[in-house]
Amino acid sequence: MIPSNPAPFRPLRSLFAGDPEMRELVSEFAAELPERAGQIARHAEGRDAAAVMRLAHQLRGAAGAYGFPTIGESAGRIEDALRGLDNPGRTRALEGLRTQIEELAGLCDSARAGAPISHSRSPGR
Amino acid sequence: MNADPIHTDDSKPQVLVIDDSPDVHRLLAARLKREELELVDASTGDEGLSMAKARPPALVLLDLDMPGTDGFQVLRQLKDDAATHPVPVIVLSGLASMQDKITAFELGAVDYITKPFEFSELRVRIRSALRVHRLLQLLATRAQLDGLTGLWNRAHFDQRLAEEVSKAARHNRPLSVAIADCDHFKSVNDTFGHPAGDAVLQGVAKVLRRESRTSDVVCRYGGEEFVVLMPETAPQDAAAVCDRIRLAVEGIAWPRHPEHRVTISFGVAGTETGKSASPEAFIESADRNLYMSKRTGRNKVTSSTIDHPRPAAAA
Predict the structure, then answer these.
(1) A64–B contact, CB cutoff 8 A
(2) Hey, are the CB atoms on B21 and A63 less than 8 Å from each other?
């Protein structure tokens, strides 16, 4: 029996992958991305909305500057969904963010797969 | 040797980055490594504030959204402190609402850049902020300089005297003030012309700068009068410095009038113990001693302590 093909997995390349000044830095950043997405997911499961918002905010600011604007936008949507709410409101809002957090995790995995190999750090997960 | 009021600082301007994200610190280090600046990092608002106060940088790059003391609080405290007030602050923030921008500018930010930032834009904005800051510093310094001699002017002296008198009284430390006056200066102008008089003032200023110590503050007080503010110096030691200056001036052969020597007289007043006295008391006492030097033959130094006010010595 021929196994069904999984959805095509597209490595995500940084806009700065060809920039010698950024190459090593982008590799390190991309290698850490899955772990960061994992932290966000774990905090979401633990209903720690403040931690989710803080990590998403940091990722939003950094990802674009490392050449991953789609990751920055994805993290930004999570942050925006939580910002301005009180604590109970944030906790409720977390329930509706499951898909977005999964989407972010997928993008982070793609970025790690698409990054040049870094020799200076071990991969995040 | 006394430091020039406008000294050439060859060190790179220091840029303090206050951001809780290690990513941003790493990125800036990589992207700005070819710029003529020194980056220092703070990962919290409180850390950034204490670093800025300990050594005010040439520029602060400030994140707004940080846990604990946030960027707005940092900005407010930087602008409330006299030492850090002049430091330009560029906000680097993921917060992009109009109200955040207005608040940041109202608190004193010079620029606002939204993350994720474009580095070519960030570089030119940093260069621009550093350039404006350097020019403003230069302007502020020039406003306190004497145009003819390049020494500090009277306004600077008045400010420093008040500060040093207060410091000496607070810590019970010695402090002296010397007033110098060119003897028979009018006759130089009348006999050899005003350009020769200007050359004498410039020459005396040069000797004052050369023969005084780094910690001394040498100023042109007005006309042919100069003052030297000498922190941590008792009047008898100040008198010794002044006598060295007096001898050096006496030894100058002036190109415009080699046959005519120029001499200067000094009046010195000071405290050995940081006695609490007004700045005016130092000036009045030094001025009385200068008058004594003039009346008793010129080309001499008369000093006294304001701790026990009476003329003590005439060199």
Answers:
(1) yes
(2) no
Joined together, the tokens standing for residue B14 give 């220091």
What is the rounded end-to-end Cα distance, in angstroms, of chain A? 32
| Contact assignment for A57 to B94 by CB distance below 8 Å | yes
CA distances from B309 to B235, B272, B303, B312 (A): 11, 12, 10, 9
Which chain A residues contact residue B23 at CB under 8 A? 29, 58, 61-62, 65-66
B21, A58: Cβ pair inside 8 Å? yes
- Residues sharing a CB contact under 8 Å with residue B50, sequence separation 6 or more, in sequence order: none
Contact list, A29 vs chain B (CB under 8 Å): 23, 26
How far, in Å, CA of B166 to CA of B169, rounded? 5
- Report the alpha-carbon distance of residue B278 to residue B29 in Å, rounded: 50
pLDDT in tens, chain B (315 residues): 665 555 445 689 999 999 998 889 998 998 898 899 999 999 999 999 999 999 999 999 999 988 889 999 999 999 999 899 999 999 998 777 899 999 999 999 999 998 777 888 999 999 999 999 999 988 888 888 998 999 999 999 999 999 999 999 999 999 999 999 999 999 999 999 999 999 999 999 999 999 999 999 999 999 999 999 999 999 999 999 999 999 999 999 999 999 999 999 999 999 998 877 899 999 999 999 999 999 999 999 999 998 865 555 555
Task: Locate the chain A residue with the closest alpha carbon to B66.
Answer: A54
Cα of B140 to nearest chain A Cα, Å: 37
Q: How far is C-alpha B6 from the chain's CA centre? A: 9
Which domains does chain A possess? 23-114 (1.20.120)
| Domains observed in chain B | 14-142 (3.40.50.2300), 154-314 (3.30.70.270)
Q: A interface mutation test: which of B33, B62, B115 has the most A CBs within 10 A?
A: B115
